[in-house]
Amino acid sequence: MSKALKEALKGDPFAYPNPLVGCVIVKKGKIIGKGYHGFFGGPHAEPSAVKNCSESAKGADFYITMEPCSSINKKTPPCTDLLLQIKPKKVFIGSLDPNPAHNGKGVEILRKAGIKTETGILSKECENINSSFFKNMKENMPYVILKFAQSLNGKIADNKGNSRWISCEESRFFSQKLRAGCDCIIAGAKTIIKDNPLLTVRYPKAVKQPSVCIIDGCGKIPLNASVFKADRKVFIVVKKGFSFKGKIPKNARILEIPLKGDFLNNKILLKKLYKEGIRRILVEGGGETHGQFVFSGLFDEIYAFISPIIIGQKNSPSSVVWPDNYKIKKGLGIELKLKEEKNIGKDKLLIFGK
Amino acid sequence: MSKALKEALKGDPFAYPNPLVGCVIVKKGKIIGKGYHGFFGGPHAEPSAVKNCSESAKGADFYITMEPCSSINKKTPPCTDLLLQIKPKKVFIGSLDPNPAHNGKGVEILRKAGIKTETGILSKECENINSSFFKNMKENMPYVILKFAQSLNGKIADNKGNSRWISCEESRFFSQKLRAGCDCIIAGAKTIIKDNPLLTVRYPKAVKQPSVCIIDGCGKIPLNASVFKADRKVFIVVKKGFSFKGKIPKNARILEIPLKGDFLNNKILLKKLYKEGIRRILVEGGGETHGQFVFSGLFDEIYAFISPIIIGQKNSPSSVVWPDNYKIKKGLGIELKLKEEKNIGKDKLLIFGK
Question: Which of A134, A167, A182 is the last residue of a domain?
Fold first, then answer.
């Protein structure tokens, strides 16, 4: 199963927002085939592994990190059909499918057909690689990743707003991979006005561009900004009742969101985005945008690239900021958990969860 | 020699500001004795190793991380005398003594007495563990370590000045070890006024208290502050010409330092402290104190404890700050080099050099 997990991870980033799934087929103690779910809409791990087999998979053991799908969807036939046809000796499964409509059904189908099926093999690890998909299925909410590159002392630009480049080339490439694994990028209006970024994915073999969602409560962004030029959807988020002046670009959609205090109610925003089909979001603020998501606990992971530089001017903006009158319930701030770390070029990447 | 290096490191923190030195004695391919310089003023590595020998060291090979001392000082007899008396088969030496008055003399004495002596064994590594001592000897300047505990986004307190405790207990213990290895702690007046810290070493087996040096350009600290209560010297640094009102505590010394721009000339301060016998300084600012040392390049290492917390209020103080009108010559800020990292409790310690 740990080898199947390794296979599954090969699906990062193009399988997202689908789950990462890996499959290893073993016959007489020898691996005869391996496969993974490689891209959104592409073949699942099981048919990939079968296709790669060096001999017939009939009577072999299957190690699959997630319960095989049992429903007909538009893109692929159910993997349970394939297994019934192959007749494995035994099927070992990592995590069950968290989708309430499918949970346990794949296992049931196999068992009813007389195929020995064991579940719960390295289930924690198999769930962990899909925390994003599990959240989607269990909470009907998108998975939210905050990403920023900062100086050691927490600054994302100098006092004049210069920020190119705080992080090293390797970190910027890694950020592109993060983008490629998301179906929406959230940015603040300030970022669009100041930097006029494209917010496109520049990562090898990336085919689709994630949507962009601009937090722009009072409609301040220029409607000819670069962000509208790529072929993808752009959500412009304004406060409820605000009416935009000027011609909205063809690929743009206005989302009206009620206020919560002085800021937009981001929980409602996330729910709306989920209904729009958004599953995995990368928030690339502005410190204030990050601050709103962190303070209200509306994040799942934080990717902080810490660059070996100190930007010291008093009015340099910090990576995460909220108003002085925001009160913390307990302790000094919002507590995180360090989950993972990487050395990327000369930068240190720290990945936090809640 | 790598085993002698391991021995040397056992001298951290109590050997400081003396060099860390280790010695391993080998006879017929077997280690018969090991030793290190364990505390300031205590026996050197060579006599310690000889004392620990399981059999006579006569005719054995000596691996010593630094050239043996050849001069009579107040505390210990010269180690070259000991070696001449023992008559080793061969002496292997890591780095030469960087003190210009002794450099190469120990080796010369051994060779003149007919003892085979080879130098330069792992010399880089042997120098690196003593970058502090090497700087002292070569530049006649103290070694300066900046230390701070910050939230992920670079804050050292919330907007009301609360900072207890950003870092975890294990990090605070580690900081005490850092203090125990320094002979002076620099703090800003603001820190003294706001927190009234003792700035003493609370580390097992620590016997001496480092001096304290308070940057207090305009003499604002209360002269009954806790910092004056421990048995050690306190330097109060004021701008040249400033005269202190009130009774100076007995253990306090006023150092007048000329201004450089709006701030004190810290280079002159460091030179004065060196003349006062200070060799290894821990700067525990205040973000502004750190900022002055970082901006002017007057530091050798930065120990940054990054705690898994976000402190977001806009007016929370950052770990390193300088005025907005300070211009950076090249790039966005002062560049550092990540030298080492540790996981300490739930915190991440990043150690930077220049």
Answer: A134
